[in-house]
């Protein structure tokens, strides 16, 4: 078993392109079932990010391949959207 506070310390890696996407910013939980629906990651930073709202990457639970000791592997297309299977 792993705590949410520990999950937020894991690096998230996209296995499709090998990119490191950062750490989990937030977690979307279904309050009725108590299950995790998605991980929310910070989007790409822009040159003048302080002037604009940053975009987020939402990773549905189904796109999580493996949660390891210090890394979470996900499968997203190169555009930051879930990869088609």
Explain how this protein is built.
With 85 residues, this protein is mostly beta strands. The chain has a single domain, classed as PRC-barrel domain (SH3 type barrels). 5% of the residues lie in helices and 40% in strands. The protein has 1 helix and 7 strands, in the order αβββββββ. The chain has a 4-stranded mixed β-sheet with strand order 2-1-7-6, with no helix packed on it. The longest helix has 4 residues. The model has no long low-confidence stretch (mean pLDDT 84). This is Sporulation protein YlmC/YmxH family. It holds the Pfam family PRC. It comes from Thermacetogenium phaeum (strain ATCC BAA-254 / DSM 26808 / PB).
Class inferred from helices and paired strands: mainly beta
Largest beta-sheet characterization: 4 strands, mixed
Query: Can you list the strand order of the major beta sheet?
Result: 2-1-7-6
Oligomer: single chain
Number of distinct helices: 1
What is the alpha-carbon Rg in Å?
Answer: 13 Å
What is the chain-wise order of helices and strands? HEEEEEEE
Short description:
Helices cover 5% and strands 40% of the residues. The protein has 85 residues and is mainly beta.
Topology:
Blueprint: H1 4-7, E1 11-14, E2 20-23, E3 26-30, E4 35-42, E5 56-60, E6 64-67, E7 71-74
Protein name: Sporulation protein YlmC/YmxH family
Domain PRC-barrel: 2-77
Organism: Thermacetogenium phaeum (strain ATCC BAA-254 / DSM 26808 / PB)
Q: What are the main properties of this structure?
A:
single chain; 85 residues; mainly beta; SH3 type barrels; 4-stranded mixed sheet; 3-stranded antiparallel sheet; 7 strands; 40% strand
């Amino acid at each position: 078993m792993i705590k949410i506070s520990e999950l937020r310390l894991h690096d998230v890696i996209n296995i499709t392109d090998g990119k490191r996407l950062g750490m989990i910013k937030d977690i979307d939980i279904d309050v009725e079932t108590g299950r995790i629906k998605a991980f929310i990651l910070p989007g790409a930073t822009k040159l003048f990010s302080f002037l604009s709202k940053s975009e987020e990457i939402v990773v549905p639970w189904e796109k999580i391949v493996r949660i390891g000791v210090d890394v979470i592997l996900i499968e997203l297309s190169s555009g930051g959207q879930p990869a088609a299977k």
